[in-house]
């Protein structure tokens, strides 16, 4: 999955300069004083996202796209979106940035908001907490403070109710990502646990009057097909899938833990070796003194014993976060 | 490739490929080799018929092609000589069936897009136009995407930015390579003579383009959505005119689209047109309420039937029996009783 490069150049610069001060000015108190308290989506955007997934994404492929809109006080309004082509192997010279710039330029001609405010992605059974998502969202949020990622869950939607959620990185996580230092010490300093990585922003849907008229028209003309699957007690299929994903994550987690333990063991072994070396040195020096020879120079211990690299803890954080989400979803679907 | 601006009069365009409403037309369309002359865009097109009370030619699609449509509307401002299509001769030269039959299937996302671009139109523009994308199959044409195209329209001239249209189409093709240009849309409740010109631009891009109108001016208190295809009319061998014949419009939904539309529709009921996404528990509650309504309707029906108020139909009863889950013996008994009664009648 290609990690998204959001538009370099004028678009990003102009949007961050216009929305930046507005966003920062308004962000107040709260748990993480984030700049966006609510996301308002046009009905059109919802329909477009649904359609994009339906046509392009089957199975476990994720589809992605860009959200356009503007920021009003502490509300992020999303007024339009366009899809991103999937990463094709046979089209190696496809320039993502250029596609994006052209799209936005063209949309500007027809008066569609051309400010980049985020991106959307579909997900397979809720397993979207990955490194790639984190990186993309970080780069978006770094350039445009108010950006969000909309996660659309097509499988849950097909069961009867639209599942669309907006996420942002917490400011704490933003700090850590900025440093690019994922060692255990840094994470402890930042006081980050897996529960505080993403924050969900509430979504509302707003339509204009004319669209409401359109909806009335459509309602009169189309047959109703209610989907009641979410009342069905036989949800074992989904439960099974969720548990499968959970097991995969637990496997990965245990591998990660093994790595960490190895690191700890190596460090302590190294400490011991250092200690032993020092002692031997001292003994030798004493012996030499007693024989009247000059002592051996003190050597730089750190050069002899290179400390092992502490493993990056970001992945384990992500895995833990994902597991938490899957557990919550599973509990939810069992209600 | 097409020039962006062209005055309304004269353009030695290639003949617009005409459609044949052959399927529905009672009279036999004579398949003639090619339409004889280029239909000059300016002669009065007959704006389409059907329900609107606007003065127009005959309202029936099939009939319109076959009969002579009453002399078409000459629009007042057309500078070119008004050439009324000829009288009393049956259907013109129709070189082939309309691809995909006469049904156009629309997705709701298209209509929402159109309304949205209408709301964002430039100052002074009375209507917006754009391209329709989708797929064609044997029985119908399915429109799945669209984008708006900037254009300028004034009394006697119309300019469409075809370069823009081509670029956008290329960009869209990168995402969905299966979509073809199917035609174009316009807002507004009428077909003007500019439409004919624009239709011609589009017929260079797609064989037999469809024209969709969405009435955002809410005439008659409704937003009517109509689709047309253009047909030639007139006397073969003489100057031909162009007429738009209506097509049936159906709405196609994917399952998830249906659910999305249902949700979005709820903003109609809220005072500031805003709704939040409901939590899981609320959704379960909502679905249960709906099932409860459905059950009470069925119960009401059953009671009515029992008290004799409503006469029953066999199919409905069988359906109910199957779904409510009568035990097998009861079903068989009822069935046997019916057979016995019928035999008794015969005897």
UniProtKB/TrEMBL annotation, chain A:
Residues 1-34, 266-313 are annotated as: Disordered. InterPro entries: eIF3h, eIF3h_C, JAMM/MPN+_dom, JAMM_MPN+_peptidase_M67A, MPN. Residues 8-21, 270-289 have a biased composition (Low complexity). It is found in: Cytoplasm. It comes from the Eukaryota. PROSITE patterns: MPN (PS50249). The keyword Phosphoprotein applies. Residues 39-173 form the MPN domain. Component of the eukaryotic translation initiation factor 3 (eIF-3) complex, which is composed of 13 subunits: EIF3A, EIF3B, EIF3C, EIF3D, EIF3E, EIF3F, EIF3G, EIF3H, EIF3I, EIF3J, EIF3K, EIF3L and EIF3M. The eIF-3 complex appears to include 3 stable modules: module A is composed of EIF3A, EIF3B, EIF3G and EIF3I; module B is composed of EIF3F, EIF3H, and EIF3M; and module C is composed of EIF3C, EIF3D, EIF3E, EIF3K and EIF3L. EIF3C of module C binds EIF3B of module A and EIF3H of module B, thereby linking the three modules. EIF3J is a labile subunit that binds to the eIF-3 complex via EIF3B. HAMAP family: eIF3h. Component of the eukaryotic translation initiation factor 3 (eIF-3) complex, which is required for several steps in the initiation of protein synthesis. The eIF-3 complex associates with the 40S ribosome and facilitates the recruitment of eIF-1, eIF-1A, eIF-2:GTP:methionyl-tRNAi and eIF-5 to form the 43S pre-initiation complex (43S PIC). The eIF-3 complex stimulates mRNA recruitment to the 43S PIC and scanning of the mRNA for AUG recognition. This is Eukaryotic translation initiation factor 3 subunit H. It comes from Felis catus. The gene is EIF3H.
TrEMBL record, chain B:
Residues 1-27, 55-91 have a biased composition (Low complexity). Keywords: Cytoplasm, Initiation factor, Protein biosynthesis. Gene3D superfamilies: Cytidine Deaminase, domain 2. SMART domains: JAB_MPN (SM00232). Signal peptide: none annotated. Residues 28-54 have a biased composition (Pro residues). The keyword Electron transport does not apply. Pfam families: JAB, MitMem_reg. The keyword Magnesium does not apply. Residues 104-234 form the MPN domain. InterPro entries: eIF3f, EIF3F/CSN6-like_C, JAMM/MPN+_dom, MPN. Residues 1-95 are annotated as: Disordered. PANTHER family: EUKARYOTIC TRANSLATION INITIATION FACTOR 3 SUBUNIT F (PTHR10540:SF6), EUKARYOTIC TRANSLATION INITIATION FACTOR 3 SUBUNIT F-RELATED (PTHR10540). This is MPN domain-containing protein. The lineage of its organism: Eukaryota, Metazoa, Chordata, Craniata, Vertebrata. The gene is EIF3F.
């Amino acid at each position: 999955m290609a990690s998204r490069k959001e538009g370099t150049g004028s678009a990003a610069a102009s949007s961050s300069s216009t929305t930046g001060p507005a966003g920062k000015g308004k962000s107040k108190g709260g748990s993480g004083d984030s700049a966006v308290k609510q996301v308002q989506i046009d009905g059109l955007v919802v329909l477009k996202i649904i359609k994009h997934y339906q046509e392009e994404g089957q199975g476990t492929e994720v589809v992605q796209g860009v959200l356009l809109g503007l920021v009003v006080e502490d509300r992020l309004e999303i007024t339009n979106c366009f899809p991103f082509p999937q990463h094709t192997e046979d089209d190696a010279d496809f320039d993502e940035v250029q596609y994006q710039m052209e799209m936005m330029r063209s949309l500007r001609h027809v008066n569609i908001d051309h400010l980049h405010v985020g991106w959307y992605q579909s997900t397979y059974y809720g397993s979207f907490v990955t490194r790639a998502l984190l990186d993309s969202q970080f780069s978006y949020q770094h350039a445009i403070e108010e950006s969000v990622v909309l996660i659309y869950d097509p499988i849950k939607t097909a069961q009867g109710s639209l599942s669309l959620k907006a996420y942002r990185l917490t400011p704490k996580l933003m700090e850590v990502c900025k440093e690019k230092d994922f060692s255990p010490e840094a994470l402890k300093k930042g006081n980050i646990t897996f529960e505080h990585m993403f924050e969900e922003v509430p979504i509302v849907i707003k339509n204009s009057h004319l669209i409401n008229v359109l909806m009335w028209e459509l309602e009169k003309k189309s047959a109703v097909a209610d989907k009641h699957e979410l009342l069905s007690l036989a949800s074992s299929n989904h439960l099974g899938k969720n548990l499968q994903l959970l097991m995969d994550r637990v496997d990965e987690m245990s591998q990660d833990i093994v790595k960490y333990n190895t690191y700890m063991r190596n460090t302590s072994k190294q400490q011991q070796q250092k200690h032993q070396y020092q002692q031997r040195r001292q003994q030798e020096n004493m012996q030499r003194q007693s024989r009247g020879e000059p002592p051996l120079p003190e050597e730089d211990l750190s050069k002899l014993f290179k400390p092992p690299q502490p493993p990056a803890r970001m992945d384990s954080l992500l895995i833990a976060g994902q597991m938490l989400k899957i557990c919550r979803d599973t509990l939810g679907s069992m209600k | 490739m097409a020039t962006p601006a062209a005055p309304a009069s004269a353009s030695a365009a290639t003949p617009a490929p005409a459609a044949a409403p052959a399927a529905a037309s009672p009279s036999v369309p004579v398949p003639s080799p090619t339409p004889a002359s280029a239909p000059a865009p300016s002669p009065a097109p007959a704006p389409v018929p059907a329900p609107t009370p606007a003065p127009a030619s005959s309202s029936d699609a099939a009939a319109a092609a076959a009969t002579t449509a009453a002399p078409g509307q000459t629009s007042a401002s057309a500078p070119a000589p008004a050439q009324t299509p000829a009288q009393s001769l049956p259907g013109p030269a129709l070189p082939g069936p309309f691809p995909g039959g006469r049904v156009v299937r629309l997705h709701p996302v298209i209509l929402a897009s159109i309304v949205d671009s209408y709301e964002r139109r430039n100052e002074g523009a009375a209507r917006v136009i754009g391209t329709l994308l989708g797929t064609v199959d044997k029985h119908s044409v399915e429109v799945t995407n669209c984008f708006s195209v900037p254009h300028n329209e004034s009394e006697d001239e119309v300019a469409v930015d075809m370069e823009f249209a081509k670029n956008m189409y290329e960009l869209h093709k990168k995402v969905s390579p299966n979509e073809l240009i199917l035609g174009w849309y316009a807002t507004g409740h009428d077909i003007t003579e500019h439409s004919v010109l624009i239709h011609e631009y589009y017929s260079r891009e797609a064989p037999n383009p469809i024209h969709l109108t969405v009435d955002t001016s809410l005439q008659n208190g409704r937003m009517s959505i109509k689709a047309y295809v253009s047909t030639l009319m007139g006397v073969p061998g003489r100057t031909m005119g162009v007429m738009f014949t209506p097509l049936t419009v159906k709405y196609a939904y994917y399952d998830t689209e249906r659910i999305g539309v249902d949700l979005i529709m709820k903003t109609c009921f809220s005072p500031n047109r805003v709704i939040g996404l409901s939590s899981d528990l609320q959704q379960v509650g909502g679905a249960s309420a709906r099932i409860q309504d459905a059950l009470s309707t069925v119960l009401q029906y059953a009671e009515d039937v029992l008290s004799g108020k409503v006469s029953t139909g066999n199919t409905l009863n069988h359906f109910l029996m199957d779904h409510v889950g009568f035990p097998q013996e009861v079903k068989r008994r009822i069935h046997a009783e019916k057979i016995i009664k019928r035999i008794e009648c015969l005897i």
